[in-house]
UniProtKB/TrEMBL annotation:
<feature type="coiled-coil region">
    <location>
        <begin position="30"/>
        <end position="87"/>
    </location>
</feature>
<feature type="region of interest" description="Disordered">
    <location>
        <begin position="1"/>
        <end position="21"/>
    </location>
</feature>
<dbReference type="InterPro" id="IPR040661">
    <property type="entry name" value="LZ3wCH"/>
</dbReference>
<keyword id="KW-0175">Coiled coil</keyword>
<keyword id="KW-0233">DNA recombination</keyword>
<keyword id="KW-0539">Nucleus</keyword>
<dbReference type="GO" id="GO:0120230">
    <property type="term" value="F:recombinase activator activity"/>
</dbReference>
<protein>
    <submittedName>
        <fullName>PSMC3 interacting protein</fullName>
    </submittedName>
</protein>
<dbReference type="GO" id="GO:0120231">
    <property type="term" value="C:DNA recombinase auxiliary factor complex"/>
</dbReference>
<dbReference type="GO" id="GO:0000709">
    <property type="term" value="P:meiotic joint molecule formation"/>
</dbReference>
<dbReference type="GO" id="GO:0000794">
    <property type="term" value="C:condensed nuclear chromosome"/>
</dbReference>
<keyword id="KW-0469">Meiosis</keyword>
<dbReference type="GO" id="GO:0007129">
    <property type="term" value="P:homologous chromosome pairing at meiosis"/>
</dbReference>
<feature type="domain" description="Leucine zipper with capping helix">
    <location>
        <begin position="91"/>
        <end position="147"/>
    </location>
</feature>
<dbReference type="Pfam" id="PF18517">
    <property type="entry name" value="LZ3wCH"/>
</dbReference>
<dbReference type="GO" id="GO:0003690">
    <property type="term" value="F:double-stranded DNA binding"/>
</dbReference>
<dbReference type="GO" id="GO:0010774">
    <property type="term" value="P:meiotic strand invasion involved in reciprocal meiotic recombination"/>
</dbReference>
Amino acid sequence: MGGKQKTAVSRQEQLPAASDAELRGLDGDIAALSAEVTALQQSCRRMEAELKDLNGSLTTPEMAREIEELKKDCAGYAEKLARIKSATNHVTPEEKERVKSRQKLYCKEWRRRKRMATELLDAILEGYPKSKKQFFEEVGIETDEDHNVTLPAAV
């Protein structure tokens, strides 16, 4: 446990003595330099924030390419809008409503007929000795599910 330590001591008489006026002057210099350091640090933080913003934004060539792409998109949309406006096959609200009501009627009829067929088939299958799948194969019945068809939701 015997470590050695060295200690340095300066001799006071070698340093020139400073007067109170000199010390106050040095304190003033320190305060002024501290204020300058604080101002420079704030300026540095502002510049770093500005640099971060600039690094996050597009460069001039990138911005030019982006503008060109947006102009092409805009021209394409304008052309599409012009085609739509010039089209003569617009669907009137009355025709749209008529189609919707017919679809509703057909779906209602589809549900009714499917329910009737299911009830009839269930009645037949009560006395049938084989499985439902075998019965459907023998008779040749195809279901909506066989063709991945689903009845639209009620409107």
